[in-house]
Design brief:
Strand order of the largest sheet: 3-2-1-4-7-6-5
CATH topology: L-fuculose-1-phosphate Aldolase
CATH class: Alpha Beta
Low-confidence stretches: none
Number of helices: 8
Distance between the termini: 48 Å
Number of domains: 1
GO molecular function, one term: metal ion binding
Radius of gyration: 18 Å
CATH superfamily: Class II aldolase/adducin N-terminal domain
Enzyme class: isomerase
GO biological process, one term: pentose catabolic process
Order of helices and strands: HHEEEHEHHEHEEHH
Bound molecules: 5-O-phosphono-L-ribulose
Catalytic activity: L-ribulose 5-phosphate = D-xylulose 5-phosphate
Helix content: 25-40%
Number of strands: 7
Structural class: alpha+beta
Family: Belongs to the aldolase class II family. AraD/FucA subfamily.
Protein backbone atom coordinates (compact mmCIF):
# COMPACT_ATOMS: atom_id res chain seq x y z
CA UNK A 1 0.00 0.00 0.00
CA UNK A 2 1.68 3.25 -1.13
CA UNK A 3 1.99 6.16 1.29
CA UNK A 4 -1.03 8.50 1.19
CA UNK A 5 -0.44 11.99 -0.19
CA UNK A 6 -0.72 14.62 2.55
CA UNK A 7 -2.13 17.92 1.30
CA UNK A 8 -0.39 19.96 3.99
CA UNK A 9 2.97 18.61 2.82
CA UNK A 10 2.51 19.65 -0.82
CA UNK A 11 4.04 22.79 -2.34
CA UNK A 12 2.25 25.97 -1.30
CA UNK A 13 1.16 26.80 -4.87
CA UNK A 14 -0.42 23.35 -5.30
CA UNK A 15 -2.20 23.71 -1.95
CA UNK A 16 -3.53 27.07 -3.15
CA UNK A 17 -4.73 25.49 -6.41
CA UNK A 18 -6.54 22.78 -4.42
CA UNK A 19 -8.18 25.41 -2.19
CA UNK A 20 -9.39 27.36 -5.24
CA UNK A 21 -10.77 24.19 -6.83
CA UNK A 22 -12.55 23.28 -3.59
CA UNK A 23 -14.27 26.66 -3.62
CA UNK A 24 -15.33 26.32 -7.26
CA UNK A 25 -16.63 22.76 -6.84
CA UNK A 26 -18.48 23.63 -3.63
CA UNK A 27 -20.13 26.63 -5.32
CA UNK A 28 -21.05 24.67 -8.45
CA UNK A 29 -22.85 21.98 -6.45
CA UNK A 30 -25.46 24.64 -5.60
CA UNK A 31 -26.29 24.87 -9.31
CA UNK A 32 -27.69 21.31 -9.39
CA UNK A 33 -30.68 21.91 -7.06
CA UNK A 34 -30.95 25.48 -8.41
CA UNK A 35 -31.68 24.14 -11.92
CA UNK A 36 -33.85 21.29 -10.63
CA UNK A 37 -31.39 18.58 -11.68
CA UNK A 38 -31.27 16.60 -8.42
CA UNK A 39 -33.33 15.60 -5.39
CA UNK A 40 -32.03 14.95 -1.87
CA UNK A 41 -28.30 14.05 -2.15
CA UNK A 42 -28.33 12.67 -5.69
CA UNK A 43 -25.77 13.97 -8.16
CA UNK A 44 -22.19 15.11 -7.90
CA UNK A 45 -19.66 17.52 -9.41
CA UNK A 46 -15.89 17.21 -9.65
CA UNK A 47 -13.06 19.23 -11.10
CA UNK A 48 -9.46 18.31 -11.80
CA UNK A 49 -6.94 20.53 -10.00
CA UNK A 50 -4.95 22.63 -12.47
CA UNK A 51 -1.66 24.34 -11.57
CA UNK A 52 -0.16 26.98 -13.90
CA UNK A 53 -2.42 25.73 -16.68
CA UNK A 54 -1.27 22.12 -16.28
CA UNK A 55 -3.70 19.44 -15.02
CA UNK A 56 -2.39 17.78 -11.85
CA UNK A 57 -2.91 14.24 -10.55
CA UNK A 58 -5.59 15.43 -8.11
CA UNK A 59 -9.29 16.23 -8.39
CA UNK A 60 -11.96 17.51 -6.01
CA UNK A 61 -15.38 15.90 -5.55
CA UNK A 62 -18.26 16.11 -3.10
CA UNK A 63 -18.53 13.83 -0.07
CA UNK A 64 -21.03 10.99 -0.43
CA UNK A 65 -24.58 11.44 0.80
CA UNK A 66 -24.11 14.91 2.31
CA UNK A 67 -27.03 17.30 1.98
CA UNK A 68 -26.50 20.05 -0.60
CA UNK A 69 -27.07 22.76 2.01
CA UNK A 70 -24.20 21.31 4.08
CA UNK A 71 -21.66 21.26 1.24
CA UNK A 72 -18.80 23.77 1.47
CA UNK A 73 -15.11 24.17 0.79
CA UNK A 74 -14.30 22.48 4.10
CA UNK A 75 -15.88 19.16 3.13
CA UNK A 76 -14.92 18.94 -0.54
CA UNK A 77 -12.82 15.77 -0.83
CA UNK A 78 -9.46 15.65 -2.63
CA UNK A 79 -8.65 12.45 -4.53
CA UNK A 80 -5.91 11.05 -6.74
CA UNK A 81 -6.63 10.02 -10.33
CA UNK A 82 -6.99 6.49 -8.95
CA UNK A 83 -9.97 7.73 -6.97
CA UNK A 84 -8.18 7.42 -3.63
CA UNK A 85 -8.84 10.11 -1.02
CA UNK A 86 -5.67 11.87 0.12
CA UNK A 87 -5.03 13.22 3.63
CA UNK A 88 -6.89 16.41 2.76
CA UNK A 89 -7.81 17.93 6.11
CA UNK A 90 -11.32 16.44 6.20
CA UNK A 91 -12.14 13.70 8.75
CA UNK A 92 -10.76 10.32 7.69
CA UNK A 93 -14.35 9.05 8.02
CA UNK A 94 -15.64 11.48 5.35
CA UNK A 95 -16.03 9.31 2.25
CA UNK A 96 -15.91 10.80 -1.26
CA UNK A 97 -18.83 10.47 -3.67
CA UNK A 98 -19.93 6.94 -4.54
CA UNK A 99 -19.24 7.93 -8.16
CA UNK A 100 -15.60 8.84 -7.47
CA UNK A 101 -14.30 5.81 -9.40
CA UNK A 102 -16.31 6.88 -12.46
CA UNK A 103 -15.05 10.46 -12.33
CA UNK A 104 -11.47 9.25 -11.83
CA UNK A 105 -11.73 6.85 -14.78
CA UNK A 106 -12.93 9.71 -17.02
CA UNK A 107 -10.02 11.94 -15.97
CA UNK A 108 -7.53 9.14 -16.59
CA UNK A 109 -8.91 8.32 -20.02
CA UNK A 110 -10.27 11.55 -21.53
CA UNK A 111 -7.55 14.10 -22.11
CA UNK A 112 -8.87 17.65 -21.98
CA UNK A 113 -11.69 16.83 -19.58
CA UNK A 114 -11.36 19.02 -16.49
CA UNK A 115 -14.83 18.61 -15.00
CA UNK A 116 -17.40 15.81 -14.60
CA UNK A 117 -21.02 16.06 -13.44
CA UNK A 118 -23.64 13.42 -12.68
CA UNK A 119 -27.34 14.07 -12.09
CA UNK A 120 -30.64 12.19 -12.08
CA UNK A 121 -32.50 14.99 -13.82
CA UNK A 122 -36.02 13.82 -14.61
CA UNK A 123 -36.42 14.05 -18.37
CA UNK A 124 -32.87 13.00 -19.24
CA UNK A 125 -33.16 10.07 -16.83
CA UNK A 126 -36.49 9.08 -18.43
CA UNK A 127 -34.72 8.87 -21.82
CA UNK A 128 -32.03 6.79 -20.04
CA UNK A 129 -34.74 4.44 -18.70
CA UNK A 130 -35.96 3.95 -22.28
CA UNK A 131 -32.30 3.50 -23.35
CA UNK A 132 -33.13 5.92 -26.18
CA UNK A 133 -30.71 8.60 -27.43
CA UNK A 134 -32.17 12.11 -27.52
CA UNK A 135 -32.44 12.89 -31.24
CA UNK A 136 -31.02 16.17 -32.55
CA UNK A 137 -34.20 18.07 -33.37
CA UNK A 138 -33.27 21.45 -31.82
CA UNK A 139 -30.70 24.05 -32.78
CA UNK A 140 -29.77 24.18 -29.06
CA UNK A 141 -28.72 20.51 -29.39
CA UNK A 142 -26.57 21.36 -32.39
CA UNK A 143 -25.02 24.21 -30.41
CA UNK A 144 -24.16 22.29 -27.24
CA UNK A 145 -24.04 18.62 -28.25
CA UNK A 146 -23.22 18.60 -31.98
CA UNK A 147 -25.83 15.90 -32.56
CA UNK A 148 -27.85 13.39 -30.54
CA UNK A 149 -27.20 12.75 -26.86
CA UNK A 150 -26.08 9.10 -26.75
CA UNK A 151 -26.99 6.30 -24.36
CA UNK A 152 -24.26 4.43 -22.48
CA UNK A 153 -24.43 0.84 -21.20
CA UNK A 154 -26.09 -0.29 -18.00
CA UNK A 155 -23.35 -0.45 -15.37
CA UNK A 156 -23.38 -1.10 -11.64
CA UNK A 157 -21.65 1.35 -9.30
CA UNK A 158 -18.56 0.39 -7.36
CA UNK A 159 -15.80 -0.16 -9.89
CA UNK A 160 -14.67 1.22 -13.28
CA UNK A 161 -17.81 -0.03 -15.08
CA UNK A 162 -19.66 3.31 -15.16
CA UNK A 163 -16.50 5.25 -16.04
CA UNK A 164 -15.65 2.82 -18.83
CA UNK A 165 -19.19 3.12 -20.19
CA UNK A 166 -18.99 6.92 -20.14
CA UNK A 167 -15.63 7.02 -21.92
CA UNK A 168 -16.46 4.38 -24.54
CA UNK A 169 -19.71 6.17 -25.41
CA UNK A 170 -18.34 9.73 -25.46
CA UNK A 171 -15.26 8.74 -27.48
CA UNK A 172 -17.63 8.04 -30.38
CA UNK A 173 -19.65 11.22 -29.99
CA UNK A 174 -19.39 15.03 -30.14
CA UNK A 175 -21.71 15.19 -27.13
CA UNK A 176 -20.44 16.24 -23.68
CA UNK A 177 -23.37 14.31 -22.20
CA UNK A 178 -24.14 10.59 -22.03
CA UNK A 179 -27.32 9.00 -20.70
CA UNK A 180 -26.13 5.97 -18.73
CA UNK A 181 -28.83 3.32 -19.20
CA UNK A 182 -31.41 3.16 -16.41
CA UNK A 183 -29.28 5.51 -14.33
CA UNK A 184 -28.99 9.09 -15.56
CA UNK A 185 -26.80 11.66 -17.32
CA UNK A 186 -23.08 12.13 -16.86
CA UNK A 187 -21.52 15.20 -18.49
CA UNK A 188 -17.95 16.34 -19.08
CA UNK A 189 -16.32 19.68 -19.86
CA UNK A 190 -13.04 21.56 -19.92
CA UNK A 191 -13.83 22.46 -16.33
CA UNK A 192 -16.61 21.80 -13.82
CA UNK A 193 -18.60 24.88 -14.89
CA UNK A 194 -18.71 23.64 -18.50
CA UNK A 195 -19.84 20.20 -17.30
CA UNK A 196 -22.58 21.76 -15.14
CA UNK A 197 -23.75 23.80 -18.15
CA UNK A 198 -23.91 20.62 -20.24
CA UNK A 199 -26.02 18.98 -17.51
CA UNK A 200 -28.43 21.94 -17.46
CA UNK A 201 -28.72 21.98 -21.26
CA UNK A 202 -29.10 18.17 -21.36
CA UNK A 203 -32.16 18.32 -19.11
CA UNK A 204 -33.60 21.26 -21.04
CA UNK A 205 -33.42 19.52 -24.43
CA UNK A 206 -34.56 16.19 -22.94
CA UNK A 207 -37.71 17.93 -21.74
CA UNK A 208 -38.35 19.90 -24.95
CA UNK A 209 -37.87 16.96 -27.31
CA UNK A 210 -40.06 14.77 -25.07
CA UNK A 211 -42.86 17.35 -25.16
CA UNK A 212 -42.45 17.92 -28.89
CA UNK A 213 -42.72 14.20 -29.61
CA UNK A 214 -45.93 13.99 -27.55
CA UNK A 215 -47.46 16.44 -30.02
CA UNK A 216 -46.48 14.49 -33.10
CA UNK A 217 -43.53 13.59 -35.32
CA UNK A 218 -40.33 15.52 -34.70
CA UNK A 219 -38.04 16.50 -37.57
CA UNK A 220 -34.28 16.02 -37.26
CA UNK A 221 -31.78 18.66 -38.36
CA UNK A 222 -29.46 17.41 -41.12
CA UNK A 223 -25.99 16.67 -39.72
CA UNK A 224 -24.19 19.16 -42.00
CA UNK A 225 -26.35 21.93 -40.54
CA UNK A 226 -25.82 20.56 -37.03
CA UNK A 227 -22.07 20.76 -37.63
CA UNK A 228 -22.39 24.42 -38.68
CA UNK A 229 -24.51 25.23 -35.61
CA UNK A 230 -22.01 23.54 -33.32
CA UNK A 231 -19.01 25.28 -34.90
CA UNK A 232 -20.62 28.71 -34.56
CA UNK A 233 -21.76 28.15 -30.98
CA UNK A 234 -18.49 26.68 -29.76
CA UNK A 235 -16.25 29.20 -31.55
CA UNK A 236 -18.24 32.41 -32.19
CA UNK A 237 -21.15 32.67 -29.75
CA UNK A 238 -20.92 35.01 -26.78
CA UNK A 239 -18.27 37.52 -25.77
CA UNK A 240 -14.61 37.16 -26.74
O1 LIG B 1 -26.32 7.77 -8.81
C1 LIG B 1 -25.78 7.54 -7.75
C2 LIG B 1 -24.71 6.55 -7.66
O2 LIG B 1 -24.35 6.18 -8.98
C3 LIG B 1 -26.10 8.36 -6.52
O3 LIG B 1 -25.89 7.70 -5.41
C4 LIG B 1 -25.37 9.68 -6.74
O4 LIG B 1 -26.24 10.39 -7.57
C5 LIG B 1 -25.07 10.46 -5.48
O5 LIG B 1 -24.12 9.76 -4.76
P1 LIG B 1 -23.04 10.53 -3.85
O6 LIG B 1 -23.82 11.34 -2.82
O7 LIG B 1 -22.24 11.45 -4.75
O8 LIG B 1 -22.22 9.42 -3.25
Amino acid sequence: MSEKIVLAELDADLQAAVAATRQKVADLHAELPRWGLVVWTAGNVSERVVLDGVPTALFVIKPSGVSYDELGTDNMVVCTLDGEKIVDGTPDSLAPSSDTAAHAYVYRNMEGVGGVVHTHSTYATAWAARREPIPCALTMMGDEFGGEIPVGPFALIGDDSIGRGIVETLRGSTSPAVLMANHGPFTVGKDARAAVKAAVMCEEVARTVHIARQGGEIHLIPQDLVDRLNDRYQNVYGQH
